Fold:
Amino acid sequence: MPHTKRRRLVTSAVAVSLGATALAACGSGDDSKAESGPVSLTYWTWTPGMDKVVDLWNKGPGKKERITVTVKKQASGDTLVTKILTAHKAKKAPDLVQAEYQALPTLVSNDALADVSEEVEGVKEKFAEGVWQQTTLGTDAVYAVPQDIGPMMFYYREDLFKEYGLKVPTTWEQFAETARELKKKAPGKDLTTFSANDSGLFAGLAQQAGAKWWSASGDKWKVGIDDAATRKVAEFWGGLVKEGVIDNQPMYTPSWNKALNTGKQIAWISAVWAPGTLNTAAPDTKGKWAMAPLPQWSADQDVTGSWGGSSTAVTTDSAHQEAAAKFAVWLNTDHDALNALAKEGGIYPASTSAQLSGAFSNPPAYFSNQPDFYTKAAGIAKTTAPASWGPNVNVAYTSFKDAFGAAAKNKSDFAAALKKMQDDTVADMEKQGFGVSR
Structure:
């Protein structure tokens, strides 16, 4: 594969703060900044109602700047990443793309995203450090502007906790004791379930524990999925499943919905977007849930993981990178734009100033019993731990679903499942031609 060596070198350069230099030649450079006249941009996104948000730009700042943006709705996840890379190989990628944070290394390693650090200078302060870090890949380059985030929290049935005399756990040790206590008092109920059908949940829990799944030095990657922090998380949850004090069924199924709606499952580790899911899965329990910070590994910690979230990136194929970056900044920092994104797309903004204003001045209707829902959420979001993504997150996530899905179902060794995840990820990277240190 003739592309392999270049991709490996570019990826490594990104990891050691040389990404800006390595990718500069791929963009349109100063030529795009010297252009004058009307500019038309295309934006690939899956966010609902984005066309209405972009209308605000086209009729306001965009009209003044003579920059028009056209939205092209796309599928999300791996489907969109594949489509972007296919278009990029044909040099026909759009000007802007919505990209999940974990997809950025894959897109950067394929030279698909431009470094817009000069164009977004001064924007960093509008976002939590752990969030901004995901768009830089730990370098001096900036490959996207954060759009929405998914800080993780602990959700619980407030009424049932009171009924069974349970205290809201502030540490994972207390969480385990709460699960045991509930099982003794109500054998037919579970505190929660370990689910292997959404890899982002486990990734966020590992992130909170301090895991660094990918890192790079020189021309080699190091894969740390099987690191001490992640092993601690895997063994903790595997122990609870084996002990039988939590359920082992996957989320998002009719059975899971019923468990939430009937009170068979009385807590859920989730993210800030959980109210929407609960409203659909457990409509009869509206107003009975409460949200608290994620339990910590030690009492003196205050950190959360992230489950989900995306950014707005400018592609190297764009002939108008400066104009595209200007729109990306407006979309994710402007007060009116963020209010429209919340209203039309249901997103929780990455911008810290927007997390307590406009659409977030009042709690979600499902949590009307917790007036400080978004105040508490904003505080938690600031404690988001840095994430460490690599060029084949999709492979790691697929391996997690297979290995941990089987381990949860069989109540078998989670440590072995984690090793399988590590081995699968390393094997794939070596197959693609990436240098991997052992």
Observations:
- The beta strands are 39-45, 67-73, 96-100, 145-157, 214-217, 220-223, 267-271, 289-293, 306-314.
